[in-house]
Write a structure and sequence with these properties.
Double Stranded RNA Binding Domain; alpha+beta; 84 residues
Length: 84
């Protein structure tokens, strides 16, 4: 299953903090934007896999234009979760 969620990237002390406003507790970080994006894809996939294994439905993804990114920026992150 393919999923796409908006994520907020905020630079703090030379690293990038990533959080998914629609998925409580789903967050990660990276030293560069590229690393943060890679880890964001992994965090998203892991978070969604746990929800699906627990037979819980993930929250609906917000529209990117509705996200307040504060001092950071918002982008879409996707992942493919293989779940049977």
């Amino acid at each position: 299953m393919n999923f796409i969620y908006p994520a907020i990237f905020t630079e703090e002390q030379g690293s990038y903090i990533v959080e998914f406003p629609d998925l409580e507790g789903c967050q990660t970080f990276g030293e560069t934007q590229e690393e943060a994006l890679k880890y964001a894809e992994e965090a998203l996939a892991g978070y969604l896999l746990v929800l699906l294994e627990e037979e819980r439905l993930p929250a609906k993804a917000s529209k990117i234009q509705e996200i307040d990114s504060g001092a950071g920026f918002t982008t879409l992150v996707s992942c493919n979760v293989a779940y049977a």
